[in-house]
């Protein structure tokens, strides 16, 4: 990619080293657990061993006898202040602490406050809770049975476990095509419940100052401003109004959507700090994080595709059952109960689709969050990419060829999808061709034929996905009414160095580097002289935070727009200093010069200095600008991924031989960071495809609630990723960028599963549910008689 | 989590003597590792407790035992047990079918237990629960045989040794 700026300026396209890494690699990051305040108390949480039970009694006597245990807080205590329930982002309600019933295993039951963390844990062990267990409802399909117990009896008039119904597309037109199509294929699939499993668990230090009536909340949140507003809405009635709340989100060790929701622990800590006046620290342990925090996915999908016998896709139909646990605590834009699932028509040119979804309550933890995913896009992409392969097998066409024949063409953009999206740009043919060339597709197909003759199992899987990110345009996108714009504020100091603040919050994305590069690109100030700050609601402009690959599409755009306001001002000052008219000036990164006389010029540093020392009469002094960017459209990154697997015919061990990922995220700010994002994202893509799933038994126990049993892939499981890109700029975005953080997590699972199915399809296996473990594959192969020979 | 345990063993004692011991909960419980009867409520209801220690997890279950069926003629019985962890950390439910019959002058005892465990033990011990149960049952059988042979029985269960025995049985297991 060609760079407009020099390496010294370090604008877009330069692989600048990450500014934040200087502190991270030296162990000098500042995370919530590093916050230590005078007089701070520690909180630990008693959790339910039952998935569904009445609480008959909570006896804290023995806990309170332990020296150092200050208090034990129960739902009854919070009830006095009407803080025992809280709203979820989806306008459902969630218990902070229960007053009478627990709804899932590991739910918060009581909080122990003590003078240190270990005493708090001892206190937790000493709290005696008398439960009356009830039979839990674990199966989402059974949740809709007429005789199923009504779990949310707290909701007035509730007579079933159904939460909501959603649909999009043209039902009749789609049905008509299905009724008349040469070929229809149908597949049931489950996108299992998984967990973001970030390295840092969730936690906070709530510090309420009684004298000032002011709360400072240090917490692991991806959306500090939204949290401040939510706290004010929940606690306004006790006097905590929004100007008296400061939320600080320090360094975050991975968010992936799991740090968007408000968990009960945060609220309890605030309540206790409010009542005691002492700072309260709460840090989850690993198992609590895995067992109780919001899950991701858990969609049961019936997917159908209709087409012609020569392989033209005509229509798709998806029906979803969404298991939300005991409350809908999804982190979606408010008008989108299924998030952006309707992107599931994919990268293909056809005119009819119908999708519907129903959500139900069960006795599982609430959720679900958008795990490195623009709200349910992962589920949608899995469905469409699996179905494309199922369809290709049915018509007997090579899956690459079938995709090439069905892709939306480059000149068809902007493309109106059958579910209402306007895809901004793309070049799907170029992406897939590049991936096929990189992997040597035709040779691999020949090799596969030879290997099959020798009885060896090798498969080639493709995923050519379209993502939808950057939520979002204010006409459709809001969270609890707040529009999903985002913001940037740039202040350039007299000596030409700058600080820029944002409404987003990095959790490892590298904002301190990429945002600085955007500002450097626009103003020509070296990126190393641009300090980036996020996460403090007292200093940063309001924004809705970082998730769903929205930072570059929204706040990144805001940075460019704010910088352009400053460049306009710089031009006026330069004209004044050079005594020419503005029209006579030409910009090149870092300076304005007079057309035809390049030696007559003013650097950006000279111009900024003048804005403080010698600004033109009538002009406002200083060099600052703020921009709130409301995107006109979402951005539509895409990718073409090809995965090669070899399967051991005896142990069924699945080895990813190669994985080629060609991403198109539009213009690239920092190629090295993009590559890093892709590597991490692909690893989190192989996770649900082959390893991760939260497993519950009928009694409501989580059977893999620790990292002993919940398999997070490590470097050992990760193949050597081969990455590359095509560039189709977003036409409506100021810098043409689209966002890349989650593309690999979204696009990788179907490529892997398609490869595994491709390796065994000739033996009679047409589909495999994720995660495809060796044991699952063994059972399927046994079913088709593979081992009988 | 649910687990089913089926065990069969032979004992060189006459059927009626064996059955008399089995059919009396107060008698048989002295052979169950870690268990004790604390109260006989009536002819078919008992209260008892079981203390288990498995590695870091110590659980004390206080529970009720109910004799659902006692057929002394055909030597068959059905017991229901429900135990709640005394600290509110979970529960265990059990239905046990037991029967005894005479085979070549010896007595063959067969019992099967359907156990449902909820809570921390299920979460952390699920991978090893069958192996632990196996060890406990072997210990019970040894105790029971010793008791009928008139020997002293010590039914305390020690967690450390239990964990060690299980580990040995797992890691020392021959490939099958």
Defining key terms:
heterodimer; A: 789 residues; alpha+beta; Aldehyde Oxidoreductase, domain 4; Aldehyde Oxidoreductase, domain 3; seven-stranded mixed sheet; six-stranded mixed sheet; 18 helices; 33 strands; globular; B: 176 residues; Alpha-D-Glucose-1,6-Bisphosphate, Chain A, domain 4; 29% helix; 45% strand
| Sheet/helix structural class of chain A | alpha+beta
DSSP helix fraction of chain B: 25-40%
Number of helices of chain B: 5
CATH architecture of the largest domain in chain A: 2-Layer Sandwich
Descriptive overview:
The complex is a heterodimer of chains A (789) and B (176). In chain A, 28% of the residues lie in helices and 25% in strands. Chain A contains 18 helices and 33 strands. In chain A, a hairpin with a 5-residue loop joins β19 (415-416) and β20. Chain B has 176 residues and is α+β, with helices and mostly antiparallel strands. Chain B has one domain (2-170): Alpha-D-Glucose-1,6-Bisphosphate, Chain A, domain 4 (2-Layer Sandwich), CATH 3.30.530.20. Chain B has a seven-stranded antiparallel β-sheet. In chain B, a hairpin with a 4-residue loop joins β2 and β3. The model of chain B has no long low-confidence stretch (mean pLDDT 83). The interface between A and B is medium-sized, with 22 and 20 residues.
């Amino acid at each position: 990619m060609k760079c407009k700026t020099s390496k010294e300026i370090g604008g877009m396209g330069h692989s600048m080293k990450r500014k934040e890494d200087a502190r991270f690699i030296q162990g000098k990051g500042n995370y919530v657990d590093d916050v230590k305040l005078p007089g701070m108390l520690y909180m630990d949480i008693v959790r339910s061993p039952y998935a569904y039970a009445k609480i008959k009694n909570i006896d804290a006597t023995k806990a309170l006898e332990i020296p150092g245990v200050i208090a034990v807080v129960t739902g009854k205590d919070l009830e006095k202040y009407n803080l025992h329930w809280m709203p979820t982002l989806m306008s459902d309600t969630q218990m902070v602490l229960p007053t009478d019933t627990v709804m899932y295993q590991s739910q918060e039951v009581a909080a122990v406050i003590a003078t240190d963390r270990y005493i708090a844990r001892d206190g937790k062990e000493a709290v005696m809770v008398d439960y009356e267990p009830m039979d839990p409802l674990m199966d989402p399909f059974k949740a809709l049975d007429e005789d199923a117990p009504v779990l949310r009896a707290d909701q007035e008039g509730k007579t079933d476990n159904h939460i909501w119904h959603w649909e999009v597309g043209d039902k009749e037109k789609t049905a008509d095509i299905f009724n008349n199509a040469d070929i229809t294929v149908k597949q049931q699939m489950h996108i299992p419940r998984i967990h973001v499993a970030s390295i840092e668990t969730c936690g906070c230090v709530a510090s309420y100052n009684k004298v000032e009536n002011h709360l400072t909340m240090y917490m692991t949140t991806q959306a500090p401003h939204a949290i401040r507003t939510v706290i004010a809405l929940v606690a306004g009635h006790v006097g905590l109004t929004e100007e008296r709340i400061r939320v600080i989100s320090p360094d975050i060790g991975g968010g992936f959507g799991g740090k968007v929701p408000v968990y009960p622990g945060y609220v309890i800590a605030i309540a206790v700090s409010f009542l005691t006046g002492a700072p309260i620290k709460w840090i989850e342990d690993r198992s609590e994080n895995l067992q109780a925090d919001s899950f991701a996915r858990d969609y049961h999908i019936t997917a159908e595709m209709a087409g012609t016998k020569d392989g033209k896709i005509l229509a798709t139909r998806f029906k979803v059952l969404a298991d939300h646990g005991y409350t809908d605590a999804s982190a979606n834009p408010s008008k989108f109960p299924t998030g952006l699932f309707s992107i599931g028509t994919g990268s293909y040119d056809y005119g009819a689709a119908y999708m519907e979804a129903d959500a139900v309550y069960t006795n599982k933890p609430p959720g679900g969050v958008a795990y490195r995913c623009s709200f349910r896009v992962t589920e949608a992409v899995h469905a469409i990419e699996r179905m494309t392969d199922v369809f290709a097998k049915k018509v007997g066409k090579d899956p690459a060829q079938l995709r090439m024949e069905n892709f939306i063409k480059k000149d068809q953009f902007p493309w109106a999808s059958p579910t209402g999206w306007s895809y901004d740009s793309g070049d799907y043919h170029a992406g897939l061709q590049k991936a096929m060339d990189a992997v040597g597709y035709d040779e691999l197909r020949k090799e596969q034929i030879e290997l099959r003759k020798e009885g060896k199992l090798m498969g080639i899987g493709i995923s050519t996905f379209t993502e939808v990110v950057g939520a979002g345009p204010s006409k459709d996108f809001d969270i609890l009414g707040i529009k999903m714009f985002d913001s940037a504020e740039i202040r350039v100091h007299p000596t030409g160095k700058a600080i820029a603040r944002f409404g987003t919050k990095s959790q490892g994305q590298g904002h301190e580097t990429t945002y600085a590069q955007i500002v450097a690109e626009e103003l020509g100030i070296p990126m190393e002289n641009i300090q980036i700050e996020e996460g403090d609601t007292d200093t940063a402009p309001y924004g809705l935070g970082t998730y769903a690959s929205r930072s570059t599409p929204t706040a990144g755009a805001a940075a460019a727009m704010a910088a352009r306001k400053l460049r306009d001002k710089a031009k006026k000052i330069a004209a004044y200093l050079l005594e020419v008219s503005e029209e006579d000036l030409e910009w090149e990164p870092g300076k304005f010069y007079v057309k035809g006389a390049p030696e007559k010029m003013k650097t950006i540093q000279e111009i900024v200095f003048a804005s403080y020392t010698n600004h033109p009469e009538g002009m406002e002094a200083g060099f600052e600008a703020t921009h709130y960017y409301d995107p006109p459209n979402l951005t539509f990154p895409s990718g073409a991924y090809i995965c090669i697997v070899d399967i051991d015919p005896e142990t069924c061990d699945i080895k990813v031989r190669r994985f080629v990922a060609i991403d198109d995220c539009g213009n690239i700010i920092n190629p090295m960071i993009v590559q890093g994002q892709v590597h991490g994202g692909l690893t989190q893509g192989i996770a649900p495809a082959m390893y991760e799933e939260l497993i519950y038994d009928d009694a409501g126990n989580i059977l893999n609630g620790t990292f002993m049993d919940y398999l997070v892939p490590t470097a050992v499981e990760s193949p050597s990723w081969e990455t590359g890109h095509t560039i189709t700029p977003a036409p409506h975005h100021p810098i043409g960028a689209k966002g890349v953080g989650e593309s690999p997590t979204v696009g990788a699972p179907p490529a892997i599963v398609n490869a595994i199915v491709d390796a065994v399809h000739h033996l009679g296996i047409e589909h495999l549910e994720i995660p495809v473990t060796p044991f699952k594959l063994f059972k399927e192969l046994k079913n088709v008689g593979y081992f009988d020979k | 989590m649910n687990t089913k345990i089926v065990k069969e063993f032979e004992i060189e004692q006459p059927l009626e003597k064996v059955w008399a011991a089995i059919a009396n909960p107060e008698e048989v419980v002295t052979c169950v590792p870690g268990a004790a009867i604390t109260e006989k409520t009536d002819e078919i209801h008992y209260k008892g407790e079981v203390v288990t220690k498995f590695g870091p997890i110590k659980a004390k279950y206080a529970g009720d035992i109910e004799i659902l069926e006692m057929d002394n003629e055909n030597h068959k019985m059905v017991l229901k047990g429900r135990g709640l962890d005394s600290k509110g950390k979970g529960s265990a439910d059990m239905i046990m079918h037991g029967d005894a019959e005479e085979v070549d002058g010896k007595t063959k005892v067969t019992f099967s237990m359907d156990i449902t465990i909820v809570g921390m033990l299920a979460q952390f011990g699920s991978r090893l629960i069958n192996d632990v149960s196996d060890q406990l049952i072997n210990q019970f059988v040894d105790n029971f045989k010793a008791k009928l042979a008139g020997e002293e029985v010590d039914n305390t269960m020690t967690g450390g040794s239990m964990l060690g025995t299980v580990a040995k049985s797992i890691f020392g297991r021959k490939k099958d």
